[in-house]
Amino acid sequence: MSPTTHPEPIRLADYRPPVCEFEEISLDFVLDPDVTTVTSRLKVKTRSGAPETLALDGRELTLKSIKIDDRPLGRDEFQVDREHLTLIDVPSTCLIEIVTTIAPRLNSALMGLYLSNGIYCTQCEAEGFRRITYFLDRPDVMTRYKVRIEADLASCPVLLSNGNPVGGGKLANGRHFALWEDPFRKPAYLFALVAGDLACLEDHHVTRSGRRVALKLYADSAAIDQCAHAMDSLKRSMRWDEDAYGLEYDLDLFQIVGVGDFNFGAMENKGLNIFNTSALLARTDTSTDGDFQQVERIVAHEYFHNWSGDRVTCRDWFQLTLKEGLTVFRDQQFSSDMHSAAVKRIADVMLLRETQFAEDAGPLAHPIRPESYVEINNFYTRTVYEKGAEVVRMLHTLLGAELFRKGIDLYFARHDGSAVTCEDFVQAMADVSGRDLRRFMRWYSQAGTPEVRVTREFDSSTGSLTLEFTQSTPPTPGQQAKLPLHIPIRVGLVGRDGQALPLQLAGENAKGETARVLELTEERQSFTFVGLDAAPVPSILRGFSAPVRLRSDLTKDDLLHLLKHDEDAFNRWEAAQSLAAEAIVQAIRMSPQRQPVPDADLIQAYSRLLEGSIEQDHAFVARTLSLPGRSFIAQQLSVIDVDAMHRVFKTFQETIGRELEAPLLAAYRSMARIDDGSTRTAAMAARTLKNAALAYLVIGQPAKFEPLAVSQYRQSSMMTDRLSALRILAEIDGAAGASLLEDFYGRWQNEPLVVNKWFALQAGIEDYKSPERVEALMQHPAFTLANPNRVRALLGTFSMANLIGFHREDGAGYRLLADKVIELDSKNAQVAARLLTTFGRWRRFDLHRQQMMKSQLERILAVPGLSRDSYEIASKSLG
Ligand code: TRP
Ligand code: ZN
């Protein structure tokens, strides 16, 4: 498509139900890398009961034949264009047979049926099924699937699809076949097929009603010994969904397959999840603790989709957050139950603020339920997923756990087997609680991060504290005026002696509770707490009860008080973050005239934390000692000065490392003793603090502590320790870094996922030589644009996590990224468009950089035949 014929957006307001239903589809695949034949037989029933014109979706298919009720159609009885097969006057009930061919080997988009290291696999969400056969490829068309797969026995001994295996056998010429049937009706986006030479790890789960479910994990035979953690995670997920939500698995077989080439993390196809190996494989020598947690989370996420997504699905793609927001919320609850709830919440909020808040403040801002899109693949965003999960969490906070659970029960009971909308979800919550959630619905339609301001007034004569709240949401593209939202604010009061005080609102009886939820629904509201002897320190937005930017009048002393005493762990962490953020932002503003240093109070607070760390949650201590993320700080600056930011962060880390040498070293040693090399929560937490301490020590005094990092690298057999040590050594650019990078590659060159870490580590080293280093790494024999994980490791990390390298003054980083986006766009538009999103931040930089980033966007837009995906991102970014 040329940039002059702009693709038209699709609008939620234009939704119409489909003209017909398919009672059943029988699909026959004769697999071949270059010419796979797909025969589809559709049992059609028009909704009107009269003949209808039927426009089936299809892309890059070669049509061989069409029959209706066994009668071959003539050339004048249908029309084919780039996106559709249109059949005129289709009888109200009939059988349509369509034969098409496709070429899996040439499929570099990784949507539809493709080959990954010799394994045939599919990805149909959102609109990949239309690359397999002509169909009504929309989630509100739900059908029963019968599948026959035929392939070469030697290269494809394993043949899988959704549901249950119902037959199979050998054929002539070294071929064989398998038959699968899925008893559950499903939309086409949940269809899956896998064929290849795969090893299998088997186990089983007995549901609480006593049914035995076979669990099968498939991967390349070289990787099958890295599947145990995923299997264990799956079993715990199944048990958890039964305990937490009363939801049982519904088939006798649950299968997961890992493939190396995948556009996202994983996919919840009914009974046959397909995973990126990066979200499936884990072994302590090849994977970090972060990887272990990621695998556990994604296995749970996809498994939970069996109910929140598969049994109850979305009516149309605008409703994507219905399944994704809810399922992310569910996987967050699961992880929180498996490990430390406070640390999980902190990690989720950091991610939200660093990525989603930035998205919501830029040209690509959209509500969790967008009103229009050009390419739906561009809307698998932090907003739809993570902000969507926050919206579900707010319902949980407003209703309380018990009513929320009733609401979920009602939602599944009411809508099982159907394709529904976000209104249906909120309606179930309203019905069980009797609450008016109409204003709450605005969260689904309004983009932008609300700002909540709070000021306080203490009246010592009456012993009352008044909190005055105002809320406002900044304009976002296409949405100038904003309305007030329904915002739950969890609060507490911390007394001068550090005690949690009972909360009694004026006009209420005392209940003795020390935490409660205030509800904002208007632009301005105030709440008065009574019965107070002295002015307490308010602890506001505990647990980050709403996805807002909070501006309070808390002083530095108040924050230090909360850091010490708040019973809400999240707000203890938040107090430390606010103190550090404030100091960093100030230092950036005055740099480079004065040497930026963290103030003594912050250092002292860190020191106290370290000294008290033995009794505490060590991962919590590590998080609290960590400086806020770059992106979080950048959002608070009017113009992002990358050089000043870099200098300030570095100086802060150096100063902390030097001034806290003794307590950091003590923490390092005691954590090393606690760390038993397992992946239990406590051992992972100890390693987190150990490696945080090591980083500060080495940055603070490179000459003195480089040997400690070198010996950790050499002595540990765990990837977490090795990679942490290597990262810090590469960053300080000392004597050991380069040779250990080589050593690392030499050891792990046959493990693709570890090679990704090697690329990412080097792409993320923040220095002015990075564009050349990244350029050189692209020439490395192990680099390829064909593998999304590798592209993300090198180019994703460089453009998202290497501030001074990517934004180098001469524009070398921008050119490099744009070159590769253009090259990738014709091969895998989905991955190209995603890489391109960084350019959308151009308005946040100085004029010189703005110009350079804009001209790269213009250059991309001018590419003949640019994909819909990249067109949408680039044009909206400039807009
Ligand atoms: N539904 C998947 C999830 O659980 C997302 C996903 C996987 C996806 N693969 C995709 C989305 C390809 C679009 C294209 O989050
Ligand atoms: Zn999902």
UniProtKB/TrEMBL annotation:
Pfam families on file: DUF3458, DUF3458_C, Peptidase_M1, Peptidase_M1_N
GO MF terms held by the record? alanyl aminopeptidase activity; metallopeptidase activity; zinc ion binding
Q: Which reaction does it catalyse?
A: Release of an N-terminal amino acid, Xaa-|-Yaa- from a peptide, amide or arylamide. Xaa is preferably Ala, but may be most amino acids including Pro (slow action). When a terminal hydrophobic residue is followed by a prolyl residue, the two may be released as an intact Xaa-Pro dipeptide
Keywords from the named record: Aminopeptidase, Hydrolase, Metal-binding, Metalloprotease, Protease, Zinc
Q: Name one GO biological process term.
A: proteolysis
Q: What domain of life does the native source organism fall in?
A: Bacteria
Q: Where is the signal peptide?
A: none
Name the EC number(s).
3.4.11.2
Domain Peptidase M1 membrane alanine aminopeptidase positions = 230-443
Domain Peptidase M1 alanyl aminopeptidase C-terminal, chain residue ranges per copy: 557-878
Which cofactors does this protein require?
Zn(2+)
Q: Which residues form the Peptidase M1 alanyl aminopeptidase Ig-like fold domain?
A: 448-552
Aminopeptidase N-like N-terminal domain location? 36-190
How would you classify this enzyme at the top EC level?
A: hydrolase
Functional note:
Aminopeptidase N is involved in the degradation of intracellular peptides generated by protein breakdown during normal growth as well as in response to nutrient starvation.
What is stated as this protein's family in its record? Belongs to the peptidase M1 family.
NCBIfam families, from UniProt?
A: pepN_proteo (TIGR02414)
Spell out the protein name for this chain. Aminopeptidase N
Which organism's genome codes for this protein?
Arboricoccus pini
Where is the organism placed in the taxonomic lineage, from the top? Answer: Bacteria, Pseudomonadati, Pseudomonadota, Alphaproteobacteria, Geminicoccales
